[in-house]
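Problem 3 from the worked examples.
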Amino acid sequence: MVKVDRLETLIQRVVADEIMNHVKDNVGFITITGVRVTNELSFMYVYYTVFGTEENVAKTKEALERAKGFIKNQVAVRVKMRKVPDLIFKYDDSFQQGMKVDKIIKEIK
């Protein structure tokens, strides 16, 4: 389990670096919030959040889908994995959910 945690942290760093420095598309103000690799190394889920409007989120999603192959290749090279899992980007809406809860709590007071 410790090796998987270290692998996930390393992949998160590599993906964030590649998006920040090498992806040419406009991905907006993006934060990679986490990575989860399945036990059999079939999939790596990269969770991200975007600061901005729904339009910014949609544009970022499209840009990430276009760059998916490049990012997966860079993970393979930099992490030196024998088997590179399929890369799946998932939007992390926990920040928006937290803001809704915070707003409800403030209204109750």
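Problem 4, a separate protein:
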Amino acid sequence: MSLYEHVIITRPDISAAQVEEIVNNIDKKVQNLGGTIEGAEYWGLRNLAYRLKKNRKAHYNLLKINAEASVIHEIERQHRINEDILRYMSIRVDEFSEDASPIMRKREERKRRERND
């Protein structure tokens, strides 16, 4: 099996609970096809660099998936059908980083600075 980092960008007008439901559905689909999700991070509602389908903000999620390529192809096929998902990207990696992603590290540093002030 191969390791993939899969980022999903969803519409801003859906709730965080709906975003979590989308991630849970992806998790179930991956498990049904014989893969596993090693980790998931919700990066929050963030500004986009440019408009996507008339949206200026979007919900971001990172999934660390351990699965065959056919599983990733099936997930991406379902993303193309789902209107709530604006963009997605899957990248094959050699290994998952044990550290938090750069987005989460930046958020933690910001919170630490706010506490010190």
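Solution to problem 4. The chain has one domain: 2-116. The longest strand covers residues 36-52.
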